[in-house]
Amino acid sequence: MDRTLRWQKSTFSDGGEGNTCVELAVSPATLHLRESDTPGTVLTTTPSTLAGLLEGIRTGGLESG
Fold first, then answer.
1. Cα(36)–Cα(30) distance, rounded to whole angstroms?
2. Which of 2, 5, 20, 38 is the most exposed place for a label (fewest CB within 10 A)?
3. Cα distance between the two ends of the chain
4. Which residues are within 8 A (CB) of 40 and not within 5 positions of it... i.e. 6 or more apart?
5. What's the pLDDT tens digit per position in 1-43?
């Protein structure tokens, strides 16, 4: 089985300097996120954890501190 990740750029990326994009790759049960200008740095999370973060951002439910 090929374990190479297939990265997709966000449709919200502005294309500015060519490397201002958020990219996402999916493997079974895991999401991988990175910025185009630093492709060696990858954030790995689960769909439910990312959904919780996004919901907190949308609703203002995240505490700063």
1. 19
2. 2
3. 44
4. none
5. 346 899 998 777 666 565 568 899 999 889 999 988 888 999 9
Residue with token string 């060519």? 18
**Token reading at 64:** 């700063």
The C-alpha atoms of residue 65 and residue 37 are separated, in whole angstroms, by 28
pTM, whole model, 2 decimals? Answer: 0.70
How does DSSP assign the chain, residue by residue? -------EE-TT---TTS---EEEEEETTEEEEEETT-TT--EEE-HHHHHHHHHHHHHT-PPP-
